[in-house]
């Protein structure tokens, strides 16, 4: 892994990795996706053009919270 983001050509700020293994600054990748993803669901890696999903899976934690609230206190 290089020590520079290939989008901003600076040291990483909040580095994130995409499925192909390339790493970018979180803000750089977010800006890139915002400007280059026509459907808002997939994007192509700025380096190798491999497509990846940009849909963030939903996190279902409400069920766990409800279960904890139903549990009797010790």
UniProtKB/TrEMBL annotation:
Keywords: Metal-binding, Zinc, Zinc-finger. The keyword Zinc applies. Gene3D superfamilies: Zinc/RING finger domain, C3HC4 (zinc finger). Residues 5-49 form the RING-type domain. InterPro entries: Znf_RING, Znf_RING/FYVE/PHD, Znf_RING_CS. This is RING-type domain-containing protein. Pfam families: zf-RING_2.
């Amino acid at each position: 892994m290089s020590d520079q983001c290939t989008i901003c050509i600076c040291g990483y700020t909040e580095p994130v990795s995409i499925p192909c293994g390339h790493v970018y600054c979180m803000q750089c990748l977010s800006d890139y996706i915002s400007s280059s993803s026509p459907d808002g669901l997939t994007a192509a890696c700025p380096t190798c053009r491999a497509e990846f999903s940009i849909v963030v899976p939903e996190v279902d934690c409400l069920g766990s919270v409800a279960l904890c609230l139903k549990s009797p206190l010790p």
